[in-house]
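#data-curation
PF: Archiving a pair of folding outputs for the training set. Convention for this channel: one message per protein, sequence first, structure tokens after, nothing in between. First:
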Amino acid sequence: MEQVDKGLMKKLVDGKISDNDVMEMRRMVKKDHKRFWTYLEVLQEGVSWDENILMRLNDHLYIVSKGNNERVVKCDCGHEYGDFRVNWKLNADLRVRETQEQMDEAYFPAIAAPEASWMEIREYFCPGCTAQLAVEIVPPGYPMIFEALPDLDRFYREYMSRPLNDESIEWFQNKTAEETAKLKMNI
């Protein structure tokens, strides 16, 4: 196999790829240059909205180009979380499991559950479709983990040889603290 076709990429994205196809893809001497673009095309066909997907963050979340000067995190259901430079978890529904009983509900066997005196489980859900988007097991009071702030401009320019139209140094800045400060002022 020299190139991954769209049908095979769709099976991969949908989790329906055969073990033989996975092994054949792994044996490819070199990844074909078109694979990323085929991947984006398959992802784009799987959503009902028109904004261009720039990168997939997880099973349900994408960074998309919206208008001329916006890049936002968007769920496959269409719910928007705002600027991709701000931790999307600030705008998700949150369930915190703090007691041992609550943690035991999520683990089987219960002995595998974290100790409530040391940890809490945070479950993040989409307000639009209720899909579970992430889970964190952290000490109480630990800040929300900002999992990814990709340098999209550099990725597209240097690795994909297709610079983005709105490329700017401003895009690669974590804006979560600024957004959190605004939230504090509204309290």
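PF: Second:
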Amino acid sequence: MADGISTIQHGRIKVELGMGEIIGHALIWLLITVVTVGIGLFFYPYSLAKTVLNSVYILDGNDRRIGRFQCELSLSSQLGHIVIWLIISVLTLGIGYIVYLYKVWTLALEKTKVV
């Protein structure tokens, strides 16, 4: 597949994420957030990024699937970031959370490969 991807001239990406999957994911994380008294909000962006990235397919010029994204974020890769950003968010009274979201997506993209 790597050869096919490198020779695409007019390909595109397509996200196949249904409304049911989105609502189910959101409801699960809403429940987790309530149960953990807000701590779940620090884990949610990683799960959101992973869910979206794992739904991305690469299409060639004829709209045939030639690859997909596979995000390999693990809990261990998240914990270090979460602790640091939890501290920063508390010290900045929540404003640091905005920057944290950018770092989440950066980490998620760095842990993503095309298969």
